[in-house]
Amino acid sequence: MQLPLCLLALCAAVVCVSANRTFVVDYENDRFLKDGQPFRFIAGSFHYFRAHPDTWQKHLRTMRAAGLNAVTTYVEWSLHNPRDGAYVWRGIADLERFIRLAVAEDLLVILRPGPYICAERDMGGFPYWLLTKYPNIRLRTADIDYLNEVRIWYSVLFAHISQYLYGNGGPIIMVQVENEYGSYSACDGNYRTWLRDETQSHVKDKAVLFTNDGPSVLRCGKIPGVLATLDFGATRDLSNTWQRLRRFQPNGPLVNAEYYPGWLTHWTEPMANVSTNGIIGTFINMLDSGASVNLYMFFGGTNFGFTAGANENGPGNYLADITSYDYDAPMTEAGDVTSKYQTLRSIIGRYIPLPDVPVPQPSPKRAYGIVRLTSCCSLLSPEGRQILATGVVRATRPKTFEALNQYSGLVLYETWLPRFKRDPSILHVPGLADRAYVYVDNELVGILARETPIFDLPLSASAGSLLQLLVENQGRINYGQQINDFKGLTQDVTLDKKVLNNWNMTKYPLESVEDLLQLVAQSNAPEADAAQEDIQNLKLPRKLLRSGPAIYASILRINSEQELADTYLDMSGWGKGVVFINGENLGRYWPLVGPQVTLFVPAPVLKVGNNRLIVVEYQQAPITQQLVFRDKPILNARS
């Protein structure tokens, strides 16, 4: 399909404006008008921050080949503004490049800037430092501190993207105001109208503003003067669902802005799967009714690094999201098409013309085989503390990660135990967020966990005198009422009801790959290498790390460009931790509980020559200290 000259210019980062470029809602006739002509979108969600930038173009082309005419993406505030006053717009945060690539693939863009996005991301996309700067902030309300920070963020964001609004010559036809606000208990009308006006001040009439909510919560989700859309999965009563929308919005196009072909998964749960047969009936019925539909997700991708969030399914029921965001989507985590994709493509082709774009072939996969690692050192060793710790804070009472101005990773809380009155005595750690490895005199004595929940541990008087709680942030809550999710020790710790004071807090954010490499180099351990061996039935005896998390390192040697391919790192036999390859944090692993056992490694992360692999393991490791690169994922099992 020949692109308009204006859009070709945009691909070269030059925007030309046509007086006839408009995208509006025709309320009288219940439809959208694009340049004065009736229009409906069949779109798919793809979050740029869940894929390596070098794969964006192929993924977008695969979406266009399915017949989609638009791509929907959230904008993650925390990605672009990781520290107060600091902004990032390169690499995986290069939103403008993503938009230009969408144009090059003949896709319109539906932008969801939040500022709250949920998305199963840490703190729903909010930057953690809001809790550092304003410990009592009331997010998603008319709290003046919150509004001020949103205004600053939006002024920066829209300075980058205003040129890409449809009325300015770009592809962005719609911009969301908030996200599923009807499900948030605050139900703050002043905030909703303020955010509408703030967003409108940047968008003006150059794109359509919209909200998105479940059918039963429109009372607090609908904003006057903003197009309301719904999100829902397969249903046997579509007409009743649309009627719920019509009670709040009598006219306008019918839109399902999140139609679910798959679903999210938490650690310890079986992998969520949604059958193709279960979703096609409602999909066809929506298209028959003239609705516009966005498939969430069409491509899921990966929660790299520490970006995965968590949910609280009722008080005290904490559930951390897995690293993979495969979502049982029509495209796999690697971006390959599935049978679900082919079925949806054949349906889409009945309603809008399929483009003359061949469906891309699956990306190459490679099983690089077994890699043996060498043990470097303990995180809590003098060398580990000296190189990896970013500071020690002393205080009478324990401080949260946010009070320590730390995003993620680990914090070591240490204090001296008082004289025991009983043997054993009960250590009580209420408000633990999220997981604590408990040591006494550098010896592991137990694990406490929010998701279990277990906050009590008997300690023997013979165990020793130095109490050490190494606390892991497993992901801030991304949905519901508890998104002010402070991490670490959020309440006093007691031993037989006696409050423990005078804490040393050592910060291990695990953000500096350079520090990890320095620690490995200093250990002078020989570098292990990959070995092509039988990996079909690998059974690994394990050992508990009793003196703290350990660092392991290895080299994956790749000899030629032809050997570069996507691969999957099988963490069977390992316990819980994170993996870095060539400086890239692939995300959290936890094969002990599953369901995810492998970590996806995109080919662009790898290179010809030596690929440096570092594992930070928190609790157990195979005695053989080995792992496996496979050519297929394991997403629904346990180690």
TrEMBL record:
- EC numbers, comma separated: 3.2.1.23
GO annotation, biological process: carbohydrate metabolic process
Q: Which Gene3D superfamilies match?
A: Galactose-binding domain-like, Glycosidases
A molecular function (GO) held by this record is: beta-galactosidase activity
InterPro entries to which the protein is assigned, alphabetical: B-gal_1-like (IPR026283), BetaGal1-like_ABD1 (IPR048912), BetaGal_gal-bd (IPR048913), Galactose-bd-like_sf (IPR008979), GH (IPR017853), Gly_Hdrlase_35_cat (IPR031330), Glyco_hydro_35_CS (IPR019801), Glycoside_Hdrlase_35 (IPR001944)
Where is the Beta-galactosidase 1-like first all-beta domain positioned along the sequence?
Answer: 398-509
**Catalysed reaction equations from the record:** Hydrolysis of terminal non-reducing beta-D-galactose residues in beta-D-galactosides
UniProt-annotated catalytic positions: E180, E258
The residues covered by the Glycoside hydrolase 35 catalytic domain are: 32-349
Pfam families documented for this protein: BetaGal_ABD_1 (PF21317), BetaGal_gal-bd (PF21467), Glyco_hydro_35 (PF01301)
Q: Which UniProt keywords apply?
A: Glycoprotein, Glycosidase, Hydrolase, Signal
**Is the keyword Glycoprotein assigned to this protein?**
yes
Protein name from the UniProt record: Beta-galactosidase
Q: Which family does it belong to?
A: Belongs to the glycosyl hydrolase 35 family.
What gene is this protein translated from?
A: LOC115623780
